[in-house]
Amino acid sequence: MNKPKQPKSIVVNYDQANKELTFQTVDDASLKPLLTGTVYPILLDDFGGKIDDEFARRFGVAILNCLALFKPELKTLMFVTEQSIAPLDRTPPARPID
Question: Among 1, 34, 83, 85, fewest CB within 10 Å belongs to which?
Answer without folding.
Answer: 1
